[in-house]
Amino acid sequence: MSNKKQSVTKDIFKIAVVDAFKKLDPRVMIRNPVMFVVEIGFVVTLLLSFMPNLFGGNYGAKQIPFNVVISFILLITVLLGNFAEAIAEGRGKAQAESLRRTKTDLMAQRRSKDDSYESVPASTLRKGDIIRVLAGEMIPADGEVKEGLGSVDESAITGESAPVIRGAGGDFSSVTGGTKLLSDQLVIEVAVNPGESFLDKMIGLVEGASRQKTPNEIALTVLLAGLTLIFLIVVLTLSPFANYVKGSIDTVSLIALLVCLIPTTIGALLSAIGIAGMDRIIRFNVVAKSGKAVEAAGDVNTLILDKTGTITIGNRLASQFIPVGSHSLSELVNVAVLSSLFDETPEGRSVIDLAHKEYEFGLQLEDYNDAENVEFSADTRMSGLNLQDGTVVRKGAVDAIKQFIKNKGGRIPEDLDAKKERIAKEGGTPLAVTKDQEVFGLIYLKDIIKSGMRQRFEELRKMGIKTVMCTGDNPLTASTIALEAGVDDFIEEAKPEDKMRLIKKEQSQGKLVAMSGDGTNDAPALAQADVGLVMNTGTTAAKEAGNMVDLDSDPTKLIEVVSIGKQLLITRGSITTFSIANDVAKYFAILPAMFATMIPQLQILNIMGLTSPRSAILSAIIFNALIIPALIPLAMKGVKYRPIGATSLLMRNLMIYGLGGILVPFVGIKLIDIIITALGIANI
Ligand SMILES: Nc1ncnc2c1ncn2[C@@H]1O[C@H](COP(=O)(O)OP(=O)(O)OP(=O)(O)O)[C@@H](O)[C@H]1O
Ligand SMILES: [K+]
Ligand SMILES: [Mg+2]
């Protein structure tokens, strides 16, 4: 994003303060049952501030200051909770603002029926329109490049200043509205209707306008509401109990006690944690279509990764020609070049380059201009051409070529397998080269594993995530690379539908699966996966199928996405643990003090030695309010995540946030009690 380093500025802070008040609207508050109870508590205590005997009893003017103070603190508590949510939303709003600025009123050159171009407002462009963009112009809409090749400045969207190449055909054909064409000229087919553009969706997302509670959030909200109900019953029983021991507790004290006991900390921070998680993903240049996708990333059990380009560097280049049977090297080079004449893939280009650089070949390329191009596809795993005279030239995966020859009744040279295996054992990709039912030899494609991959897979393993490498390559190459990279499992000779099968198999065992992809043939698998991370350069179909888009088009980012998802879940879990531990501790911290005057024996339990029942209540409710802003930074930044096993992580968090949650209130409440006693307001 253009402002990915966006921190909480003065402006965001000011807006959040205003929003905190706006959110007091009960129709908004009711979505958060715990904090809604606090708001009701505020209203009731406010009434009791003016009419202390509203619910009976005979409280004199002496009661009023206490009621006013409690009412005020409850209001502050609600506002602090609202503020936490507002400040989390603030960053997104600021981002949305800057994105909107890139969406100024552009004009577009639209092709009319007579093939001339007319100037129309970009907002009128519809799916299927053909437009032309010249160097220096903004690209007015999302689309696919149909003609031309040019460099594009995508910094408005990705924050990355280095220009990227976009051109017709292949995997780099999609362009995003709001980016700028730097060179040349593109003819683009518009892919979306007004209001549905990538920029529009992104604005909606960062703004949180379309934010819905995720299933996990809903479950937790229900749990917290249940706890609130339990504590409500606990508090209601205290009044008859007090009567029984010939004492009495006033309504305001009971309300204050209730607010102390219900899980207000997590209630106040829950939505901020979710928004901050989305925000973290966005600042990582990944756009998640929903909070649910981010959460799913945190729960992922299986990670499916491509070999070429994800685990390896991906510039798989021809490095050697190896003839087989009775064929000579120069014969092989000629056929290999022929098979790659029209092959625009990096592999195909590299064959020609290698032949040019290191070999002599006597082909007159012009002679083949009328040959029929047979493009590479992941299904056939072959590429080549058909000559006018019926000659068939192919190169491709060795098993695919073998099958191809066998079907035509040809013969396989005996030394083919041994030579193929030598290449595969080194982790290289062997391509067999054939012309007219004869195999001439092999092309050795070299690929290198990216540095640090082994360590990252090790981390994933510690998180309990299984990694599966998926490749169209042969079993031996696949196993060599898999072993070297340290993935847990691999599938070889995989066609696009094999990925789909793998995902379904894992899911049928109750696992959540994440994968990345870019091509149209990845689209079904991307839709099936629980987390489908699509490269921004990918096709429109793929982008629609997945639930996250990586603006930098880096497939390894899937690993970070999973970590961010985990961090979100762990942050929520930690603060929930802390909040509930806190509430239970408060019960034991203040109850003895409250009842000590009624039941003198309870004095032994009053280990905190709080000044009076009222100061116990006051200290606890002030502590309860202050803990919310104290934890806002943690909710926003997230609990630091370490890749350790689930059990050790749980133990660690129970130690820190569970034990911490029990101890902190004792210290905090005592401190506040000392302060308000010193200020002389402990007995208002
Ligand atoms: N340009 C090409 N011409 C002919 N055959 C090719 C070409 N590129 C790749 N192949 C063969 O087709 C196989 C499948 O290629 P594909 O791109 O589907 O998978 P991959 O790149 O090996 O693995 P990944 O799924 O990780 O990208 C390759 O292993 C190779 O044997
Ligand atoms: K509480
Ligand atoms: Mg590939």
Keywords:
684 residues, alpha+beta, Calcium-transporting ATPase, cytoplasmic transduction domain A, Rossmann fold, 4 domains, 7-stranded mixed beta sheet, 23 helices, 15% strand, elongated, disordered N terminus, binds adenosine-5'-triphosphate, binds potassium ion, binds magnesium ion
Describe this structure in words.
- The protein is of the alpha+beta class.
- The longest helix is centred in the first third of the chain and has 39 residues, at 64-102.
- It has 23 helices and 22 strands.
- 51% of the residues lie in helices and 15% in strands.
- Strand 16 and strand 17 form a beta hairpin.
- The strands form four sheets. It has a seven-stranded mixed beta sheet, with helices on both faces. A six-stranded antiparallel beta sheet has the order 2-1-3-9-4-7, with no helix packed on it.
- Residues 1-6 have low confidence and may be disordered.
- It folds into four domains: 10-95 and 206-285 and 563-678, no CATH class; 126-193, Calcium-transporting ATPase, cytoplasmic transduction domain A; 300-313 and 449-550, Rossmann fold (3-Layer(aba) Sandwich), CATH 3.40.50.1000; 317-446, Calcium-transporting ATPase, cytoplasmic domain N (3-Layer(aba) Sandwich).
- It binds adenosine-5'-triphosphate, potassium ion and magnesium ion (MG).
- Adenosine-5'-triphosphate binds next to helix 11, helix 13, strand 14, strand 15 and strand 16.
- InterPro entries: ATPase_P-typ_cyto_dom_N, ATPase_P-typ_P_site, ATPase_P-typ_TM_dom_sf, ATPase_P-typ_transduc_dom_A_sf, ATPase_P-type_domA, HAD-like_sf, HAD_sf, P-type_ATPase_bsu_IA.
- It is a multi-pass membrane protein.
- It comes from Sporolactobacillus shoreicorticis.
- It is found in: Cell membrane; Membrane.
- It catalyses: K(+)(out) + ATP + H2O = K(+)(in) + ADP + phosphate + H(+).
